[in-house]
Write a structure and sequence with these properties.
Elements (H helix, E strand, L loop, with lengths): L2 H12 L14 H4 L7 H11 L3 E3 L5 E6 L2 H12 L4 E5 L6 E6 L16 H15 E2 L11 E4 L2 H13 L19 E4 L5 H7 L5 H10 L3
Antiparallel strand pairs: 1-2, 2-4, 3-4, 5-6, 6-7
């Protein structure tokens, strides 16, 4: 993959997580439903993809914020399985926003997904990106869709290319409205590839998992 991945894998080996044969989350039934991969490279790639929903704080910590803690607990458990600490806390006393912070040094906002060579790591990266920046209808009465959103057009082009390499067909990369936001880019997974996306990419985001299970798409 990249030097970032090699650094993370080395850290895992040094801290004794090499003996993990199967990655299973235990904190809650919701989290247990996520079918985590025992492959370290795939989990590292997932976190790099999920970083698209993150920021870098003034104290040099990577931060991802969410309403609720379900997905943040998943991320924390993945970091722990790789030998890294992460902290979850509520941001503000009157807000329902929670933040996870970590000093994991393999994370990199400039990471180029085109450098990923292994299919399982490509899948992990896209899954992380989908959980951070992907969209599906919450209302089961609405027509089903899978969309990926990103401000960085070039990054979304690379993800679209990865999906093609994985046999998943997508529509045209487009901007819904230049007047509303000229830097808002979106791409849809074509209906004929929905099942392939859900069986091959899927999700480790508890809320998305619940929605997808209800839709009975797979």
């Amino acid at each position: 993959m990249s030097n970032m991945r090699e650094k993370a894998v080395n850290a895992v080996n040094q801290q004794g997580s090499e003996h993990i044969k199967r990655y299973v989350l235990r904190p809650s039934e919701t989290i247990r439903r996520a079918p985590f991969s025992p492959k370290k490279g795939e989990r590292i790639a997932y976190l790099l993809g999920a970083l698209h929903d993150g920021t870098f704080s003034s104290n040099k910590r990577f931060r991802i914020s969410q309403k609720g803690t379900e997905w943040l607990k998943v991320l924390k458990a993945i970091f722990k399985s790789l030998g890294y600490n992460a902290w979850i806390y509520k941001e503000g006393s009157d807000r329902k926003v929670y933040v996870i912070e970590t000093l994991a040094n393999f994370l990199d906002f400039r990471f180029n997904p085109s450098r990923i060579e292994k299919n399982d790591e490509k899948i992990g990266y896209v899954r992380g990106f989908f959980d951070a920046e992907g969209g599906i209808p919450h209302n089961h009465k609405k027509r089903f869709y899978i969309q990926l959103i990103q401000k960085d057009k070039e990054k979304l082009k690379k993800i679209k290319k990865i999906l093609t390499e994985l046999g998943i067909k997508t529509g045209k990369l487009h901007n819904p409205s230049y007047k509303v936001d000229p830097n808002y880019w979106r791409v849809y997974v074509l209906a004929e590839s929905h099942k392939t996306f859900l069986t091959k990419i899927g999700s480790w985001h508890p809320k998305k998992v619940k929605i997808l299970n209800k839709r009975m798409m797979i």
